[in-house]
Structures are given as C-alpha cells and as structure tokens.
Write a structure and sequence with these properties.
single chain, 438 residues, alpha/beta, Aminopeptidase, 2 domains, four-stranded mixed sheet, 10 helices
Amino acid sequence: MYQDKFQVPYIKSFLISDPRYHYYPNFSDEETEAKKDLRVIFNIVNFSKTKSLYRDGMAPMVKSTSRPKWQRLPPKNVYYYRCPDHRKNYVMSFAFCFDREEDTYQFAYCYPYTYTRFQHYLDSLQKRNMDYFFREQLGQSVQQRQLDLLTITSPDNLREGAEQKVVFITGRVHPGETPSSFVCQGIIDFLISQHPIARVLREHLVFKIAPMLNPDGVYLGNYRCSLMGFDLNRHWLDPSPWAHPTLHGVKQLIIQMYNDPKTSLEFYIDIHAHSTMMNGFMYGNIFEDEERFQRQAVFPKLLCQNAEDFSYSSTSFNRDAVKAGTGRRFLGGLLDHSSYCYTLEVSFYSYIIGGTTAAVPYTEEAYMKLGRNVARTFLDYYRLNPMVEKVAIPMPRLRKGKPPSYKHPILRGPASNHPNGKGDKKSSVNHKDPSNSF
C-alpha cells in the first residue's frame, strides 16, 4: 500500500486480491534485518493484463536511507509472465540484492506523490499570497480529507459580472496514477509563474483545478478505487453525496458554471497515467457534427507540436459504452458545442521521441515539463501569441485584504435541481447516459 509505514518483512510474494483495484504502489522492508548481499526475489502476483510496460523495459523503483533519490531497477532483473498457479493471471518478479545492512529500503511502482506532499505544496503556494492564486475547500472526502479547488486568473476576471472563459482540470481520480500529480503540478507552477505566457493566460482565462479528486484513495494507497471501493471515474452519471462526495462536489460546480450565462466552460481535462502505453496522449469524444469533431482535434495537435513526449498518433476519439461514466464522456454529452472534454494520459514508464525508437524513461521533472507544455498550448489555441510581446515582467503583486468572493460557491443538494440559465444550451442536466445524444 502507499503508506510510509507499510511494513513487509522478508517479502516473498504479494497477492493482488482484486486485479481491478489493488496494487503495490509503495512498500518497505523496515523491520527486515537484512544481511549484506542478501538476494531476494519478489513476486507480485495476480496481474490481469497481457500487455504491460514491464515487457517494454519498465522496472520497479527503489530508494534507501542512504540513497534517498528514487531510481529504477535494471530491467534485466524484471520478469513478467503468466502463471498457472494464479488462475493463469500474470506475475511480475524482480530480483534485488540488499547491499547495506543499516539501510531501510522502499520500493514503488512509479514516483510517489502523497496526499501529505500535496498539502504541503498547496500550503507553500498559499503563503506566497499571490493575488492571482486562490485556494478553497470545495468539499471533503468520506474520511474528511480536503477536496481542494484552485483558481488561477487575474483578479479582474473574478469581479462581479465579469465574463469568464474557464479551463477546468482534474487529477488523481485514480489514486495510484501518481504521474497525474506531477503533470498537474507542472501546469500549476507554470500558470502562477511570472513567465510572459503565464501572465497572458491569466489575463484571458480562468483556470479551475481540482488536483486530487480521490484524497482518501491516495492516502490509503489504493490504485484505482476510493475508500469504499468505487472507481470514481465510472460514477459521473449519478455521484452520491454520501458515497462519492468529492466527485459530487466537482460535478455540482461544473453544472453551476455551465448554467451561468457569464461563464463559458471551454475545456475539461482529466489527467491520468497509463500502464500499457508510452508517451503522453489524449482520449476525446465522437460527435455527429463533423465540424465539432474536427475542432476537437485542434488542441491535441497543438500540444503535439509543443511537447516532444506527446503523441498525436496515439490520441484517439471514442464513445465506448464502458467509458460512459467517465468525466470525459459524461461532460462531453452535457456541455454544448463550444466545450471540449479530454482525458490526458501519460505513460507510467517512458516516451519515444519522433524519429527514434529508443524509450526515454520519464522522470519527475519530465512529467512536470509535460504539464508546463499543456499550459503553454492554450496560448496557441487562443492565438494569444502577439500579446506576449507586449507583456513586461513586473514583480508579482501581493493580495491585499480578503480575496474576492468566489463566483462558484459550494452547492448543496442534487445537481439536477439547478435551472438552466443559458437559452442556447441543453436544458437537460440529468444523469442519463450522454452517449444517447451522440
């Protein structure tokens, strides 16, 4: 599990009891009296997928007390194979030699990004008192952890009656997909910076970011599910305020923005990590309107030009029935023709640069760089490039007094109770499968 104190002395095998939801994001041998040069083979059993990045060179990560930086094990020590002893599911085995008796070792599937780290990060941003950065608690999880909502924009855009173009970004709905948090942090770090592009974006757009939709799952070390065992990204159609409170709160806010005649919700991007594919890529929706479908492809194409690790050839557009409860599918059916909804995926392992065949393993910095490039791409999409040359680089302004009232307060009660305020948008905001409207 993904907890710092999760202890596994002399591990030989891990059993993944339900291949859909449980994994081994992080474990340690804190109580092991390991002898120097002790060789151990770890077996992680009950994988269900035939295709795996372990077959493409991915390996678990390790760090120890004396070597605190995460690094990948040599791929030659990792094996992924089908095992008849486990209902013909797959096993990932890796060999490791404990070389220092006094060290505590930790192993991880990918670079960890904990709930505690996330809270410290947001606390540090809040202390900077930037007048274009706002943090609020949109709700709480089942175990009363914060659902943070960030608003990054010029204060002028938050004045009463101001029209807003909103980009809504979410992450970590699947708690084990830690690259999502690094990408999201890259987006945030760039948008709050004094880079001329960031300043132009803040002047023209309102960024609403919910970086951690599943804080309980992250804290507890789940790979895909919430505290109560739900895959939250299959419950957008009818989230329960009791069982899925974080998802319910975000959906209410999005519907309120949709119904506000002064607000244009132009983008929804949900960030994930992928366990079988390389590079960054996107999933989009399919529409009967060919022009709308073609417009939807513009942003991924621009991102491909800005980010060497983003693959447009791996980007796909679908309306699979199994994805009907996802944020991308539900909101793609709810919002009007001016809104575009995507799932942004990034590999747990590596990317391949165009024109080459060698895989380049992702680092924490590479994930954050992808986030910065996502943010930059909005400049190209809105054709704001000429504005950058006019922007000087002043010192950041500090917020004076209390921040302005949030335009989208937390809502109570069923999301479908809110009337539609825009005449040209869909009047139905119920929980029916949006695929029926395609």
